[in-house]
User: Fold this.
Amino acid sequence: TGGTQLSTQDVASLVSPSVVVITTEQMVSSGISWFGDSYNYVQSGAGSGVIISQDGYILTCAHVIDGASNVSVQLYDSDQQYTATVVGSDSVADIAVLKIDATGLTPAVIGDSDALAVGETVVAVGNPLGTLSNTVTDGIISAVNRSVEVESNEMSLIQTDAAINPGNSGGPLFDSYGNVVGIVTAKYTQTSSGVSAEGLGFALPINDVKEIINDLIEHGYVTGKPYLGIQVRNVSSEAQAYGISAGAAVLYVADGSCAQEAGLQVNDIIVAIDDTAIDSSSALTAALSSNYK
Assistant:
């Protein structure tokens, strides 16, 4: 920090050992088969993450691990897979902290996203398409404090034209000094009217993320906001086709949480909070954030 600006090649060499591949497994119900039996199958997913401590804490996006029954981490230049524990997650901020049983890792240096200027060079490192680990792309800061709606959640994000694709989510965005200035979260592929878009990637400003990392590590959630103690996912379209209501399906209930005390159980479906209809997990988050602060 405060040193000499590096070339893209030097940034890539410096930071790649701090970037990890994340793979997930999620049990998905397909409802009723042609033979009248219900069945489940394992659905795989992939994303990226960045090491933030020598003893195995890793930062990624909440949507990368949302609903996963198993999370694995692969380190740079290694075939070894580590089973990761989800230490804490916040779907509104789209940030999660994982922990693997490892020491002597290479943590990234956390930078200052408030110091970013439009036009400066940035480098993204991640796992696009879930198969191309340690892919390095570069670009510029296209805008800062860009207001973007992601999954019905209004967010203030860094905009960049560095190439970003599915699998990059959760990966770091570095400045030209090799500091993490953002966490890749989304990209535009086309507008609501169907117009294709290119070079419109977005990252969470690292200064916003820094404020909640300690909360996630110490408490598992962000303090000072509503906490139910559950993990949810959308009721699938297949399930809805068989008459199950749209809503937020409960995947996990934390021991000792207010949700457990209220009697919520796994496989319950939340369809309303008071007079507010809930038709998805994002609607549940939005209702809590806007009405129950």
Notes: Residues 32-36 have pLDDT under 50 and may be disordered. The first helix runs from residue 8 to 15.
